[in-house]
Amino acid sequence: MKRNLTRCRTICLAIVALILAPLACVAQTPVEPGIPILAYHRFDPSTTGPTTVRTPVLERQLDWLETHQYQVVPLSQVVDALRGGGRDMLRADTGHAVAITVDDGHVSVYTQLYPIILRRNVPVTLFIYPSAISNASYALTWEQLAEMVKSGLVEVQSHTFWHPDFRKERARRTSDDYRAFVNSQLVRSRSTLERRLGARVDMLAWPFGIIDADLQSAAERAGYRAAFAYEGGCAVPGSPPYALPRIPVSNQAGAAFGALLAPASARKPPP
């Protein structure tokens, strides 16, 4: 009887060990650090919307980042880190790096966001499509952009020339015409921004988050060193350089805002 109990105990321990072994491997596997790249669009003191963040909520989001030891860094430094030139930024024991990007060039960037980042000394990157600047009633002016760039806290990068839907453009154009159109959107935007603002433009945010292999190749040929999606969680070393993930932000605050960043490391970047 005693021998049978001992044998039974041995078998049970072996089964438990087999069950726990995979869990131990998971627990011991290091999590590759990543950097959240937050994507905003518009800001308003009182009104919210799918892509509009209330200004007081933005302040609370920035407070949350500071409280949880996130340091807002320029997007260009994130790209350098992901390429291996600044890997210290990716080390978990140095705190958390996060980048802030804003798409389109809505006037609220100047009236609402800019005073906040001046007061807090927070760098941001604006992805701009130049056709709207000083033309559309909702858009920034070239003078406003120049002032923000001069502050040293704002860098301006490309969002194509007039924010096309590349899927629709591909469907209605011949192959050659479509390739020429894509090239024009990428090159014309970059050259216009560099000429008007006197700053280097080498990063791109894809309109509507539309990305495919042909577009990524076109961005590389046009001289960009990085391009960004509109979803996908944290950017990690090995993320596709012309489809780097970002985290869309809306009117969340507190734990809801933190939840955007917390699970991001488990998400896969877009193809």
TrEMBL record:
The NodB homology domain, residue ranges: 96-271
N-terminal signal peptide: 1-27
PANTHER family reported in the protein's UniProt record: POLY-BETA-1,6-N-ACETYL-D-GLUCOSAMINE N-DEACETYLASE, PTHR34216
Gene3D superfamilies according to UniProt: Glycoside hydrolase/deacetylase
Family the entry assigns: Belongs to the polysaccharide deacetylase family.
Keywords assigned by UniProt, alphabetized: Signal
Keyword Signal on entry: yes
Domain of life: Bacteria
Protein name: Chitooligosaccharide deacetylase
GO biological processes: carbohydrate metabolic process
InterPro entries noted in UniProt: Glyco_hydro/deAcase_b/a-brl, NODB_dom, Polysacch_Deacetylase
GO MF assignments: hydrolase activity, acting on carbon-nitrogen (but not peptide) bonds
Function, in words: Is involved in generating a small heat-stable compound (Nod), an acylated oligomer of N-acetylglucosamine, that stimulates mitosis in various plant protoplasts.
